[in-house]
Amino acid sequence: MSDRPHPFLIAVAALVYFFLMVPLVIVVGAALSDTTYLTFPPQGLSLRWFENIFEISAFRRTIVTSLQIAFLGTLIALIIGIPAAYALNRFRVELPKWLGTLFVLPILVPEIVFGFALLKSLTVGAGVPIFAALLIGHTLLVLPYVVRVISASLASFDFSIEEAAISLGSAPLKTFFTIVMPNVRAGVIAAFILAFITSLNDVSVSLFLTGPGISTLPIQILAHVEQFFDPTVASVSVLLMFLTVAVMAVVERTLGLTFLAK
Amino acid sequence: MTKRRFPRLQGATGWALSAPATLAVLGFLLVPIGAVIAGTFMDPRGVFAPYISYFNSGFRTTVLFRTLQIAALTTIISLIFGFMTAYVVSRAPGKLKSLLIIAAVFPLLTGVVVRAFAWLIILGRNGILNQTLLGLGITSEPLEMLYTQGAVIVGMVYLFVPLMVLSLVGVLENIPRDVLQASSSLGASPIATFWQVLLPLAVPGLIVGAVLVFTGSFTAYATPQLLGGERQTVLATLLHQRAMVSFDWVGASTIAAIMTVITIAIVLAMSHIARRINPMAT
């Protein structure tokens, strides 16, 4: 087999990429249309549907809630996930193997089942406020990504450097922040971004954890689409895509995107 | 390996550091889901009563089989196209390869609602596809494409093909080119090399990709909700409808239990198979 793939395969790959890109182009086009209905190619260019997002209070509110939840959830996941990832690598011999598997469980369990279980046990069962339940749900949703990505970057860290610092008199906590953390900075950034985007776009967990006045942007988009079929949804979608692009640009600059494919 | 002078103390530190995350997973994930599943076996009508009534309902069994069918078809289509695309990507020159990987990552990071919504614009009654077909005179009336199983599958393949491509590119890159060259220099035709060398070596990656796609499409909510509607109810949309519209907690819990058991069974079965047939396994 020669190194160059068969022309048929190249044609298929080109079609697959066409299939992947066209719908996103259409959403952007529809968002820019000056019409009151969804159409592509756009008829007349206008940004008025983008303005409309901010005129609808439900969108304003849910954008804020989504950003709050994504930021706080990711932060909490990092605070509890970094020590866990560190322990899993540093004390690999002492800790049982199943502990590593435990942190992958949230990916294994269907998200929608997880959301329903939280509704049943937290919101209905224990009377936990919706915002808190939503935050707990998102924290656990992103925890596996945090632990996995940071574990991966700790796997290549030589812990004898840390031992050397400690035996030379550096305090363990100080050593962690001055020796270990700088070496896994890229991993922490990648984990933050991956977790943030996952939380921002989540539907299945949030679905059950919304209530009067509290909802997330994707859930609000779902609700809006089922009632109105105007370009507002397209422009909100573009807004979400822009957030993703911005975030990806940061990843690309810090550590290269191929990192995400691993 | 560093010296461990106080193994017991080390273990305790390890446990202490991982305790918050461990307790969070136990308390907020395992216990709530365990409670949902356990609850289905405490029905006053009998231990398996909720399951008996689930499978006695023609509609609900149809939903289960429809969900399995959609997931299976999505997986097969994604495997075929994902494999061919991943092969081309893995053999592309450096610069183009990273561009192609970025192009596959991007849709993956775009939300599921956005991606389902895009197909709503394309497949709708006055959508782009219908307008094109009418304009070309291929049909004289707009086709009803939304709310069909086909629409759901197209939306799902769109959702999961990038995942398949990305999980296969790594595997295909790791297959040494020498092996393929050896095969062809020993006289194997490209087709024989494909079937007898490339495909068997890619099986572990194909299994990982298949598990991701199957479990993902088996439990997806937004895509079947937007593109399938009530006509194409699947387990996820039925679960939501039972819980939030009908307030049928027992019914919703039963669906949740069925989804969890099937998902975990498939992951375990496939990883068992992957371990057995992996030719590179140690």
From TrEMBL, chain B:
UniProt subcellular location: Cell membrane
Ranges for domain ABC transmembrane type-1 = 64-268
Q: Name one GO biological process term.
A: transmembrane transport
Q: Which UniProt keywords apply?
A: Cell membrane, Membrane, Transmembrane, Transmembrane helix, Transport
GO CC: one term? plasma membrane
Give the stretches traversing the membrane. 21-42, 62-87, 99-122, 150-172, 193-214, 249-270
| UniProt topology in membrane | Multi-pass membrane protein
Asked whether the UniProt record includes Transit peptide among its keywords, one would answer: no
- InterPro entries reported for this sequence: MetI-like, MetI-like_sf
Q: Which family does it belong to?
A: Belongs to the binding-protein-dependent transport system permease family. CysTW subfamily.
Q: What protein name does the entry list?
A: ABC transporter permease
Originating species: Microvirga aerilata
Q: What is the lineage of its organism?
A: Bacteria, Pseudomonadati, Pseudomonadota, Alphaproteobacteria, Hyphomicrobiales
